[in-house]
Amino acid sequence: MRRLKIAILNLLRNGRRSVLTVSIVAIVVMALMTSGGFGLYTYQSLKEGAARSEGHLVFARPGYFSSDEEFPLQNGLDNADELRKRLLADQGVNAVQPRIYLQGLISNGEKSNIFLGQGILASEFRVKGPFLNITEGDILSKDEKVNDPQIMLGKDLARNLSVKPGDYVTLMSTTVNGALNALDFKVKGIFGTGVPDMDKRQVYTSINAAQFLLDSHRVSTLTLYGYDLEDTEFLRDKLGQLVPQLEISTWEDHAFIYKGVKNLYDRIFGLMGIIMSMVIFVSLFNTLMMSVTERTREIGTLSAMGASKAELLVGFMLEALVLAVVGAIVGIILGGLVSVGLMIFDVTMPPPPGKTVGYPLTVYFSTNLAWMISVVIVAICVFSSFLAARKGVNKPITEALVYV
Amino acid sequence: MLQLTHIEKTYTTGEIQLQALRDVNLHIQAGMMVALCGPSGSGKSTLLNICGLLNQDYFGEVRFAGELLMRDYRQAMEIRRTHLGFVFQKFNLVPVMTAFENVAYPLLLNGLKAVEVKRCVMAMLDHVGLIKFAHYRPDRLSGGQQQRVAIARALVHQPKLVIADEPTASLDSETAEQIVALMKSLGREKETAFIVASHDDRMTLHCDKVIHLKDGVIQLEENLCAA
Ligand SMILES: Nc1ncnc2c1ncn2[C@@H]1O[C@H](COP(=O)(O)OP(=O)(O)OP(=O)(O)O)[C@@H](O)[C@H]1O
Ligand SMILES: [Mg+2]
Questions:
Q1: Which class would CATH give B2-223?
Q2: CB contact under 8 A, A306 and B55
Q3: How do the domains of chain B map onto residue ranges?
């Protein structure tokens, strides 16, 4: 306590310099907090996005994920309904959605284009929430008639074929037997995904219509949604025992954007952290060096009286500790204000590469991150002060005493 | 108590070698007040630094209370902490500490308990007549008051020897007189030996022994019977 008081008084001796140093620490902590908080937000939203579109777990026939199919649904699941019921029986399971991935040609009678399609249940829209931006028309209806199948088109594809809701398009694809099959669909809705490549190719149909087109009873995969993303591993292990004949992948296996961005950001923020740490190190070193030099005679006096070098070092390190802790606290508060400020005032970020829509700039306030940054920064400050003070403390006493 | 035998000290600055002390022999007995006189550059400070165990880079032998100094930093530090006190020309009080805290410092270094510290410091401040100023920082004290705090600090842990290099040089003559008288009375009371370097002739009047130094050589040792 006494030492702390002395340290604070010593810092107040050159108040302006101390304020400056605290400011530098605070700014660095704030910068790291906000950039880190932005990173965390980005990770979280990409993670959620990936989990939402890919499902928490995907069940497929072994080999489905690793090998290409020679004909449609070659590696599909046969008894999807029965498997689905079995999985749904588990309490931790929110929904299980069969999906069929298909491709082929889409035509308006005059012009054809390639499509990539997904056959889904109408409940997919409820389970996933609003994952598409419906620009015209509506989503697939639950009570689709067998002889009047419905389809949803990406907006660029719809424009290319000049169709609008109510018009008809023909899908052509090879069946499981290798024959060519065609089926007319009524355009139910048009959507934008925010990803130009998908808007140009993507279509959604019902599972039934897709099976009819491909002439198969199989589905490609069963996509499972739990309640909490964090329980994914647990669910996988539990359900794996229920359906040992299936191969299971998690959302993470399909979250290429998430992994890519995380990889990149981790490096960027890591590098930034290192640079910021160096700034802190140099700045603290400089401050402590000045104050050690100014107090050379005092160091000499106290050493003459029998104070050990460690005792004196601790005094200076305590000063650095006070600067660092105060700076970190101020920085965390500033970082918190930035997060709150961004919640109140919307700032929209430009669309990321491969996307057409921007997203709101959000910075998470993470206590874990705050702790981590503070501990590292404080450690750097104390270490830097140790190096700066060591030189002053090791000066011969007789020299220190006559220092002016 | 402090015994110096055949002390030689050479300063080397670049090419130049300067012999600051030549074959100095000195014995300071307990409770004795010794003045060190001599012109500027005669080696007074150099000798005091060796007596105060601040400089270990010399030839010859120094014994403190019979113990031979091994030129070991720790050993010297322990002795300084427990048995030595220092008074400086520029007072050298710690500016952020109050008079009380300055005087308490040596006791805290020696690991005394807070209650003990308080008792000793207050008694000591009373001795130097500054009890009212216990909670003043040095910048609010006059030069004479600051030096009295410094003397209290040098004596509070009951050292065997106090080293004072020009303790009155920064004070006016009247205050200087008081400071010298104070050192003398406290030294006698606590049986503390003093070794004081000074240009000031009046200083010598109060001392038991005066040593005249010139060009690093002891010219004369006078034993006085101080009144
Ligand atoms: N650190 C040093 N390096 C080189 N020479 C030194 C050093 N300290 C003192 N000297 C020299 O040693 C000699 C003795 O110096 P010292 O300081 O002991 O004299 P002094 O009697 O205390 O003088 P003053 O009355 O001016 O304080 C002087 O010639 C001085 O220039
Ligand atoms: Mg001198």
A1: alpha beta
A2: no
A3: 2-223
